[in-house]
């Protein structure tokens, strides 16, 4: 997962709103009495079961993590994960065209259909050492929290549901997705919702990383590589020709003057620039990489349009004031598109999740981030990303570690949430 900059704890009023109806009222079809649910015999057995077998879950977390899953190289881990899904009794285990692994647990009916997911990929290149070391309660290894934790937790949920015969009205599809991180650009979850399970999913939970926070705001991003290109030439002999670096400079200056709203938080960054070949040559090209983000899709689109207009205007200005014979050309190449979205605090799904945390004695801490849940949020499917418990450090770094102290609480949280959302 890539975190947004801010975490927040619900105010007492909002929390009361989030919990209203989750306790007893049946104000919405999808509200479940979570406290009563947690006291049902089979559910109690499942919750006790995942606590008792947490050491197995941790072993599984290590086993999964010692199979590399670099960006665009998830296949070996996907094969291992498919076998693990079969071992915990999931049905119709398969790998889709994008490389996502899917396994099913049917309820009494097909719907409501919950997808419970975690991501297979890491940010680490193929030659990274993925051996996991244990130091007391702490596990060290790249990807051990993000997201080997999520992958292990959802398997534990499937195993506990099988072993205790928990009944659900709806069905659950367990998924290991590809392409969540960075340049993967959510390609796994995009394929899941646009092709593999198109129109068939009612709710989506991604278990990503550590802790117990609920990510209900999906920060969207659009990324571009922008190139101005021209004939170039001698700095003295060909003086007067349009310059790609001049156009780039004009556009960077214009982009830096674009106003962005503080709420919804919206940001712009020109992260890299380059171009030219020599101090005494008019450059043949100049390029930049731009990252635009917002927690609101309209604000993001608005910023996107302004940035593109600035880039185009810089081209016209530079071409307009130079010799007309060899104008610059412009290329704008999209290199990332993560839609923004949110699942409102007052929706039954968030109320249910808040009630699960309360029932288990955990604080309701809300978060924004850029995760697999962005995609279903953006098309109106109630979605959350939740932590898998424990406590992680240095995600996306080879020093990544995961402290397993009381991590069973995360497994319990996801188990109770999955059962509640499949009711
Ligand atoms: Zn992640």
- The count of strands amounts to 20
Roughly how many Å is the radius of gyration? 24 Å
Sequence stretches where pLDDT stays below 50 over 5 or more residues: 20-28
**Percent of residues in beta strands:** 25-35%
What is the mean predicted local confidence, pLDDT? 92
Bound molecules: zinc ion
* Helix content bin: 25-40%
Q: What structural category do the secondary elements indicate? A: alpha+beta
In short, what is this structure?
This protein has helices at residues 12-19, 34-39, 41-52, 54-65, 75-87, 148-164, 187-196, 244-256, 297-320, 348-359, 374-378, 408-421; strands at residues 2-9, 91-95, 101-105, 113-119, 133-135, 138-140, 171-177, 203-207, 214-218, 220-229, 233-234, 266-275, 281-282, 285-294, 329-338, 341-342, 365-370, 383-386, 391-393, 401-403. It has 423 residues and is an alpha+beta fold. Strands 1, 2, 3, 4, 7, 8, 9, 16, 17 and 18 form a ten-stranded mixed β-sheet that branches. Strands 5-6-20-19 form a four-stranded antiparallel β-sheet, with no helix packed on it.
What does this 3D model show about the protein?
This protein has helices spanning 12-19, 34-39, 41-52, 54-65, 75-87, 148-164, 187-196, 244-256, 297-320, 348-359, 374-378, 408-421; strands at residues 2-9, 91-95, 101-105, 113-119, 133-135, 138-140, 171-177, 203-207, 214-218, 220-229, 233-234, 266-275, 281-282, 285-294, 329-338, 341-342, 365-370, 383-386, 391-393, 401-403. The chain starts with a strand and ends with a helix. Helix 1 (12-19) crosses helix 10 (348-359), helix 6 packs across helix 12 (408-421) and helix 8 packs antiparallel against helix 9. The protein is elongated. A hairpin with a 5-residue loop joins strand 2 and strand 3. Strands 1, 2, 3, 4, 7, 8, 9, 16, 17 and 18 form a ten-stranded mixed beta sheet that branches. A four-stranded antiparallel beta sheet has the order 5-6-20-19, with no helix packed on it. Helix content is 35%, strand content 26%. With 423 residues, the chain is an alpha+beta fold. It contains twelve helices and 20 strands. The longest helix is centred in the C-terminal third of the chain and has 24 residues, at 297-320. The structure holds zinc ion (ZN). Residues 1, 119, 146-147, 180, 208-209 line the site of zinc ion.
